[in-house]
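User: Predict the structure for this protein chain, please.
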Amino acid sequence: MRRALVVLILLGLALAGCGGSTADVAVPDPPKATALEKGDNQKINQIIEGWQAQVPGVLEQYQIKKDTIQEKVYQSSASLQEVVDFYKQQITSANGWVEARGMPGQQGGIFLNAYDHGTISLVIGAFDATQAGGTGTVIYTAKGTK
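Assistant: Here is the predicted structure, written as structure tokens:
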């Protein structure tokens, strides 16, 4: 699952637009969410560790400066659909974001998308934690500047 997500992130970032604004663009925290620390669920821990180990390197390959990459992991009591709907309302072209082509979006119990806003790139991954024996939705975001 991790390899597929990394390949999709690579594809999305390769196809996403770049250039323009250098302003920091705030990414709102997901609904009904709190910061997620490593817990007892090894499956969830492995997925998060995989994202944290691989996504920054992928972002760097697309000229995102390492020292600007901000990763956040959340646990939300909102459903995956609520999280997807929230980000679709917040991360829009009206707000200056360009959605990467070729990203899977929402498929089954997983959501994965990438966006650019001028020189800022954003990756959002979320999954239904019940698929890994957890509860709610786990959300990962990584944002950085070119």
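The radius of gyration is 14 Å.
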